[in-house]
């Protein structure tokens, strides 16, 4: 199943994370994103998912990488905020701007920390 995710950092370098409110991975922290619906481009799906999960409007940038988890093929893109106010919604139980220290402390979805650490600096 094709999915998209967003790597979004604020002006302080913190990473936007959501706490998943439903299975799979309920209660774990992850990049915001979700399934690409039929007829959607990755950009359209990512803008929709971010708006639904975080209340933020974004501009989608370059593809950062792809990861396969089970039958989900996730295409993660860099993005930046263009508007809106951060608030959890849709299937996100919470949303936060996470520091590097938070990434080590929070219970993250499987493989997320390794994926982030493997991204070019």
TrEMBL record:
SUPFAM superfamilies: Nudix. It comes from the Bacteria. InterPro entries: Nudix_hydrolase, NUDIX_hydrolase-like_dom_sf, NUDIX_hydrolase_CS, NUDIX_hydrolase_dom. Belongs to the Nudix hydrolase family. The keyword Ribonucleoprotein does not apply. This is NUDIX domain-containing protein. GO terms for molecular function: hydrolase activity. The keyword Lipid biosynthesis does not apply. Residues 1-121 form the Nudix hydrolase domain. It holds the Pfam family NUDIX. Keywords: Hydrolase.
């Amino acid at each position: 199943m094709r999915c998209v995710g967003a790597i979004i950092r604020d002006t302080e370098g913190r990473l936007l994370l959501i706490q998943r409110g439903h299975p799979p991975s309920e209660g774990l922290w992850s990049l915001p994103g979700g399934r690409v619906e039929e007829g959607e481009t990755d950009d359209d799906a990512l803008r929709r998912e971010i708006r639904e999960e975080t209340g933020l409007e974004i501009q989608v940038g370059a593809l950062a990488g792809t990861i396969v988890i089970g039958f989900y093929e996730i295409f993660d893109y860099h993005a930046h905020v263009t508007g809106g106010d951060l608030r959890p919604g849709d299937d996100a139980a919470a949303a936060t701007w996470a520091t590097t220290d938070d990434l080590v402390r929070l219970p993250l979805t499987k493989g997320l920390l390794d994926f982030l650490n493997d991204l070019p600096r």
